[in-house]
């Protein structure tokens, strides 16, 4: 593949900001990088960079080529890994991305067992609520809660994540139990900032939506913080059962409006997303197997029915 070194140099120039930086990263001379970029521009018949005495800036054509070059190089790397490792034991570094709360509570505990089973494998868990770029961020597998899986990746559904409307008994004793969705308008409802826009969408037993402009003076962008505030009796919240199932079972939290399902913007389903080049890579395969074994047919927090302490209150 005679084109490969030039494409790699182009990407290094973009990442490093200069041909000198690209040369250092690639272990070659600046003159070699300059010639490779000139050859690319001559081949395409367009300028890829606007040059100045201070820095290089991508042209419109350069921006388009950069996106395609990243994907092409990732495909080459992935193909090389897949071919070399096909049939081999998992090895190398597995980079997994997950949301902060779900990753902390449900994915991090899986990793010690996986690396113990495969001595040549290392795992990196990247916790972020932002959408990662599988190629640019060099992620082998991303766990995403979404209604629409990405079209440019393989997406395998792992589990449905149930959410409930709940509060601490002390709060309900102080403020009363909501019997209908409209009753929530008189309550302190904890808001998930940047996600619910201070409005809750609930679905009744017939699938009809009830949209409520909730009143909230406390806002979070982290489910752990919302859980702590709910447990402390500061209001009513929509929480995932993977986070609050123990407190529901013990009675430390009680569900309300059980005949209405929270309808959150990112949906119910969790997907494992990875590029096509990772489909048969052993380290990805064994991690997928561990996910399916852990979460299907039911996740562990849904396998035991709630006792009397965890039953809901205030169904309409």
Task: Report what the structure shows.
The strands form 5 sheets. The protein has a 5-stranded mixed sheet. The chain has a 3-stranded antiparallel sheet with strand order 12-7-13. It has helices at 4-16, 19-26, 30-44, 60-85, 100-107, 111-117, 169-175, 223-231, 241-250, 282-295; strands at 49-51, 56-58, 92-98, 121-127, 141-145, 154-160, 163-167, 191-192, 200-203, 209-212, 219-220, 237-240, 254-255, 261-262, 269-274. The mean pLDDT is 87. It has 3 domains: 4-85, Winged helix-like DNA-binding domain superfamily/Winged helix DNA-binding domain (Arc Repressor Mutant, subunit A); 92-160 and 267-302, D-Maltodextrin-Binding Protein, domain 2 (3-Layer(aba) Sandwich), CATH 3.40.190; 163-264 and 304-310, D-Maltodextrin-Binding Protein, domain 2, CATH 3.40.190.290. The chain has 10 helices and 15 strands. α1 crosses α2 (19-26) and α1 (4-16) packs across α4 (60-85). The protein is α+β, with helices and mostly antiparallel strands. β1 (49-51) and β2 (56-58) form a beta hairpin. The radius of gyration is 25 Å and the shape is elongated.
Task: Describe what is shown at a glance.
With 316 residues, the chain is an alpha+beta fold. It has helices spanning 4-16, 19-26, 30-44, 60-85, 100-107, 111-117, 169-175, 223-231, 241-250, 282-295, and strands spanning 49-51, 56-58, 92-98, 121-127, 141-145, 154-160, 163-167, 191-192, 200-203, 209-212, 219-220, 237-240, 254-255, 261-262, 269-274. The protein is elongated.
